[in-house]
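Fold it.
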Amino acid sequence: MNPMREVRIDKVTANIGVGEGGEKLQSCSTLLNKMSGKKAVKTTARVRNLVFKIKKGDPIGTKVTLRNKDAEEFLKKALDAVDKKISSRAFDKEGNFSFGIEEYIDFPGVKYDPKLGIVGFDVCVTLKRRGVRVTKKRRGKATLGRRHRLTNEDGITFAKEVLGVEIV
């Protein structure tokens, strides 16, 4: 197989949406730090929402982005938490996929924290092929050929063959 056509994991992003700042957000941030081994970043509201009393710029969640070996290790643990089953609707048209873990205690190696309660989180996996960097360069930018782009089917076959995921 052509090594340029090989599908690879670009990044894995874990996200906890709290909806408010304060101590709960800080606890969720330390939880993500513990699970991933990397420093979590706070996310802020993009728009104002009067129903939830959220202003633009308020901290409402936390996330961590993992790449390379860290991403693969985290993804294996996260897939074990959902019994390696993902819905076919979780895949987008570029082959990326996302899934949710309903309770953080399902994640291997994490114990229940009474201060935090029960909180779930999302895991988003971004896939790519080699050569995609030409679309992101500042100088000498080029477009990606139609046959080199990832499709929904490419993402599903990658998840089945490489990650051992069962598509439901």
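The CA atoms of residues 43 and 113 lie 22 Å apart.
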